[in-house]
Amino acid sequence: MIDKFERARALVAPYRERPGVVGAYLAGSSIRPYADEHSDLDLYVVYDDDAFEKLPLPERYAVTFSSDDPSKKDVEIVCISLARLEAEALTRCDGLRAMRQHAVVFFDLKGGLDDLLARIGHLPEDERVPRMRIHYRELLWSEAKAKKARQRGALANARLLEAAALECVWRMLVVAAGQRPTRPDWATQELRVADVPEALVAQWESAVTSQSPALEPLREAVETWLSSLGHTFHRDAFELFRWIAFTAEGSAARERYAHVL
Question: SS3 string of 168-207?
């Protein structure tokens, strides 16, 4: 069987000779440790800006499907301009940025593509800590509101709020481990790859699949792990609220990172 990297490299090799092409790389689940038979090849070909603008729309995207299952995507090739790729270093879209942080570069004709992809995926410390604070506050809010919704008998509202709380836990755990949250199709696997404690991952996964998730014990387990990492922001909920509500740093963090607040 042809190795997936060899196959991916062969697929993008013809692009090397095209005018304006500066590089190509592979991203997505196929390069992660948990890749399986359902993982397709997500290939990206980077053009300089002028060449990309001249590229006809039909040539900017190509997709093939499995010969065994016509509904299953096999290979996707996306052409992208260098300017757009550089702009991703400023986007708020975690799923997009996380996908770049583990990319495998096949060729880089001008140099710098590896560094650019690493910069897109990097989570700096001055972003990581404020994000954890915001996601933790969102967890507290969602947990409290979900409890009230159940007391009112508003089950649909409660389930939405519980789902929001569990998403906040997922985001906070990944960020605490120094990674950007991926898209949720590989949430559990990425928690494990990020070395979040297995017992905590299992507890989160159990809550996600439960009809009545035990949010309080999960939050307490998260708090214990945060303390083991040396964090203290979770120990004073009122101080955290004041930071978000009344400081410029907290307000800016809420504006940039909050999902449910």
Answer: HHHHHHHHHCCCCCCCHHHHHHHHHHCCCCHHHHHHHHHH
